[in-house]
Specification:
This protein has helices at residues 7-31, 43-56, 75-88, 97-102, 119-130, 145-148, 195-205, 268-277, 282-286, 297-302, and strands at 35-38, 65-69, 92-96, 134-136, 153-156, 184-187, 216-223, 226-229, 243-248, 261-262. The chain is α/β, with parallel strands linked by helices. The strands form two sheets. Strands 3-2-1-4-6-5 form a six-stranded mixed beta sheet, sandwiched between helices. A four-stranded antiparallel beta sheet has the order 8-7-9-10, with no helix packed on it. Strand 1, helix 2 (43-56) and strand 2 (65-69) form a beta-alpha-beta unit. The longest helix is centred in the first third of the chain and has 25 residues, at 7-31.
Length: 306
């Protein structure tokens, strides 16, 4: 649906989603002892920051920000992450998969493999280091089938694991936040949002996002039905050709597995129009490592992934 097709309906819908998300954030602040907000600089976590502003300003957020850096993040997104945290005056904690590799906590099979699945170890170590009992995340149910199974308040055991068959009921928007020592909750305030809702909200709130979300010329390599961005980590293999195309990123993550899509959408309105007619989820279209059973989202979530 075009965001301008029915302004009253669109605004009412976004207001309802915003109100639900703010309620969830305030519930965590009231019930949980030591929460943290996962902030990567991506569009969903940018929306979480705006919701936190509306929930808690003019005071400081009652939690710090945390990013698990794979070492393979797009430089534009890392720069945006640091700048946005500084603008808000909020504490940003960064923990690196590189450090987990250096200490032997993470072992790679291949030097250039995707590090997405390895973030789980670094995240769980950070949770233990700071004693966090709740982690806000920007996951949405429309992204992927495993995320569609998850409750808004997702209990994790002492090993950081998720059991989709043993989740707490959330009747009448009542949430059970109780955890024992070593356990924690993952809380997803925008679970009920869609990719379209996120972009309509970004447009309505005039939120800044990293430039790579908008159409730009970039060198890419056609591979496995997608376009891999050329970088220090990705170069052409035998028989492959580098091409320059007009692309944008629907999601941002590990450069070794995150593909852009061809697009001429250079502003939020154009992205909203594209998103409204898309029949492929952003992860399905752009995350190469989600397309293999070994790295399935449900398996990774059972191991402690976001």
């Amino acid at each position: 649906m075009d965001s301008n097709a029915n302004p009253a309906l669109s605004t009412s819908h976004l207001d309802w989603l915003e109100s639900e998300s703010i309620h969830i954030m305030r519930e965590v602040a009231a019930e949980c002892a030591n929460p943290v907000l996962l902030f990567s600089g991506g569009k969903d976590s940018i929306v979480l920051l705006r919701l936190a502003e509306k929930a808690f300003r003019p005071g400081r957020f009652p939690f710090p920000l945390l990013h698990v850096d794979t070492g393979h993040n797009f430089p534009e997104v890392v720069e945006f992450r640091d700048r946005r945290a500084a603008e808000l005056g909020e504490r940003l904690i960064v923990r690196s998969v590189e450090d987990s590799i250096a200490t032997g906590r993470v072992k790679l099979r291949l030097a250039d493999e995707s590090r997405n699945r390895h973030q789980s170890t670094t995240l769980l170590d950070a949770i233990a280091e700071f004693g966090f009992d709740t982690c806000f995340g920007g996951a949405r149910r429309d992204e992927e089938k495993a995320r569609a199974k998850e409750r808004i308040f997702s209990f994790r055991d002492t090993f950081g694991q998720w059991d989709p068959r043993n989740q707490r009921p959330e009747l009448w928007s009542l949430y059970n936040t109780r955890v024992h020592a070593g356990e924690h909750m993952r809380v997803f305030p925008i679970s009920n949002w869609t990719e379209l809702d996120v972009w309509q909200y970004i447009e309505r709130e005039r939120l800044a996002v990293p430039a790579i979300y908008f159409a730009h010329l970039r060198e890419v390599i056609p591979r496995r039905g997608g376009l891999m961005p050329v970088s220090s980590l990705v170069s052409p293999r035998a028989g492959e050709q580098v091409e320059t195309r007009m692309v944008r990123f629907r999601t941002v993550g590990d450069m070794t597995c995150t593909a852009p899509v061809e697009s001429t959408a250079s502003d939020c309105v154009a992205i909203i129009e594209e998103t409204a007619v898309s029949r492929i989820t952003e992860r399905g279209a752009t995350r190469m490592d989600d397309q293999t059973s070994e790295a399935s989202m449900e398996l990774r979530k059972r191991e402690g992934y976001f």
